[in-house]
Amino acid sequence: xxxxxxxxxxxxxxxxxxxxxxxxxxxxxxxxxxxxxxxxxxxxxxxxxxxxxxxxxxxxxxxxxxxxxxxxxxxxxxxxxxxxxxxxxxxxxxxxxxxxxxxxxxxxxxxxxxxxxxxxxxxxxxxxxxxxxxxxxxxxxxxxxxxxxxxxxxxxxxxxxxxxxxxxxxxxxxxxxxxxxxxxxxxxxxxxxxxxxxxxxxxxxxxxxx
Length: 210
What we know:
Layout: H1 2-14, E1 23-25, E2 39-41, E3 50-52, E4 63-65, H2 66-81, E5 87-90, H3 95-109, H4 111-117, E6 131-135, H5 148-156, E7 162-166, H6 171-174, E8 179-185, H7 188-197, H8 201-208
Parallel strand pairs: 1-2
Antiparallel strand pairs: 3-4, 5-6, 6-8, 7-8
Helix pairs in contact: 3-4
């Protein structure tokens, strides 16, 4: 089944408009702006309000923008009250860091796999300072979907302003394979709307476009 899904994704990649007619964002002013395979951040963009996540809720030093950091720590604190540990294992990434990460994917697994699993530099949500990859106690985000923490996040993340950014079976829209560990801060009002209507951020933007 996994092999079939991979083949389908390759077909979509080869016949898609991903990484074509790219638009560049220089100074985003809201929390719901899109960064994907057709919209990139300026190479030099660094959020000016990055703050380190409390190490109780993160692995080593991880940074998010101020509002997203507060929301994530509140989320993780509330989960802990229920005996669950939600740990940030990746958050803000610089343009240079993403360049190296994507290059490693290409070197190790090939171009198509890299485009399925990783963003090219400038196209990574992590550069926004609003995206966070999470794991539970074992810090293995690849197995996060099998945990109680994932079940809790799926039901509750939107209450804190976060959305599951790359849902199952939405690759043709987002351009990325299913990532149950990757969450994006958009603010509570928008996250609730996206959750209630089972949308991606791209679908939300299209629906709300004038």
